[in-house]
């Protein structure tokens, strides 16, 4: 029913910026919270940030506060992750996902995108 399409991953130097996009097809984000997760090789999946579609309430992991910003575009039915001041430890596969509430647990999210690779070089 819900298909999530991600884009924007790539290679960036430490201190640089990157913007990831997550768009829904088939079904709108209107009834969902949209979150971003990341998983580095050999590590567990980590919550990055999330936003409620209706009110725009946001939640950030401590590791990205002040550097990453999540936003939504109602007209385009898309969610964006603006990543600034990137660090090598931000290197990971990044996934967008939807949930029924603003949760930080991956198990609470129902639909997932395929992921996009982000590599931050030192």
Protein described:
The protein is mainly β. Helices cover 0% and strands 52% of the residues. The strands form two sheets. Strands 2, 4, 5, 6, 9, 10 and 11 form a seven-stranded mixed β-sheet that branches. Strands 1-3-8-7 form a four-stranded antiparallel β-sheet, with no helix packed on it. The radius of gyration is 13 Å and the shape is globular.
Concise synopsis of the structure shown:
The chain is mostly beta strands and 122 residues long. It is built from no helices and 11 strands.
Main sheet properties: 7 strands, mixed
Rg (C-alpha, Å):
13 Å
Number of helices: 0
Low-confidence segments:
none
* Coarse morphology: globular
Give short descriptive properties of this protein.
globular; 122 residues; mainly beta; four-stranded antiparallel sheet
Map the helices and strands:
Blueprint: E1 3-7, E2 10-13, E3 18-25, E4 33-39, E5 46-52, E6 58-60, E7 68-73, E8 78-83, E9 92-99, E10 109-112, E11 116-121
Parallel strand pairs: 2-11
Antiparallel strand pairs: 1-3, 3-8, 4-5, 4-9, 5-6, 7-8, 9-10, 9-11
């Amino acid at each position: 029913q819900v298909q999530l399409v991600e884009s924007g991953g790539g290679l960036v130097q430490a201190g640089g910026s990157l913007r990831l996009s997550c768009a829904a097809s088939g079904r709108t984000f209107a009834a969902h919270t949209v979150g971003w997760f990341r998983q580095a090789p050999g590590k567990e999946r980590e919550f990055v940030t999330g936003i409620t579609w209706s009110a725009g309430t946001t939640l950030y992991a401590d590791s990205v506060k002040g550097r990453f910003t999540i936003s939504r575009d109602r007209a385009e039915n898309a969610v964006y992750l603006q990543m600034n001041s990137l660090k090598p430890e931000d290197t990971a596969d990044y996934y967008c996902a939807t949930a029924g509430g603003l949760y930080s647990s991956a198990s609470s999210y129902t639909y997932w995108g395929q992921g996009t690779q982000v590599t931050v070089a030192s």
